[in-house]
Amino acid sequence: MPNEIRSFFLNGPAGRLEALLNVGERDARYCALVCHPHPLFGGTMHNKVVYHAMKALNGFGLPVLRFNFRGAGTSAGKHDEGRGETDDVRWALDWLHAEYKLPILFTGFSFGAATGMRASCPDPRVEGIISLGTPVSVQGRIYTYQFLQTCLKPKLFISGGNDEYGPTENLEQVVALAAPPKKLVIVEGADHFFLKQLGEMQSAIEEWVRERYVVTSAAG
Fold it and tell me: How far is residue 186's CA from residue 192's CA, in Å, rounded to a whole number?
């Protein structure tokens, strides 16, 4: 049942990773992973953007896994500036594959997007990528995405028109360099966290998934 939630720990590369699984329908044709924003700035799998992304995907009957990166919540280990966190994503992808043997749709928000795309782009088990609030420059940290030039998977980028960490002009340059297929959605007036406009963000995810994927055996 899509409303069922399992709480458990993954065996991660730096120790156990706190996880939640929103169970999907038995006939789901995909499963999904959603990754949270920067843990040193309060990011966890309970973040509102992460939650709404999960709701969008689980609403199609997909099983959706969320987890806390190393050092966040009750996950073991300590923050590793994105290096170890990329391995955390790989282990989460391994768990989903072992559990479901289904193609995976990856979604990440902010740090979770920047980190998770590095793991998801080269992984043949991932069939689609959604990047929310793609960070470009955050408090002196510059994010580069050269690897997207060879990432041939369908990619959806959703950001706020007033995103302070990913100005539209800079994000457009990132998307322009990314290999097709790709789509950029700007939620006008929204900030990095889509404050008061989470519904628009969620709808953009739903529209893209509906257009691109047959998500259950009963889908038209």
Answer: 11
Q: For the segment 42-82, what is each residue's pLDDT rounded down to a tens digit?
A: 999 999 999 999 999 999 999 999 999 999 999 999 999 99
Which pLDDT band, with edges at 50, 70 and 90, does 2 fall under?
Answer: low
Residue 17's region, left for phi above 0, alpha for psi from -120 to 50, else beta, is beta
Q: Which amino acid is at 215?
A: V
Burial of 37 (0-12, 13-18, 19+ CB in 10 A): buried
pTM of the model: 0.95
Residue 157: count of CB within 10 angstroms of its CB: 24
Question: What is the dihedral angle through the alpha carbons of 92, 58, 156, 174, rounded to the nearest 10 degrees?
Answer: -40
The H or E element spanning position 57 is: helix 48-58
**Which token pair is 39?**
């843990």
Whether residue 219 has pLDDT greater than 60: no
CATH number of 5-212: 3.40.50.1820
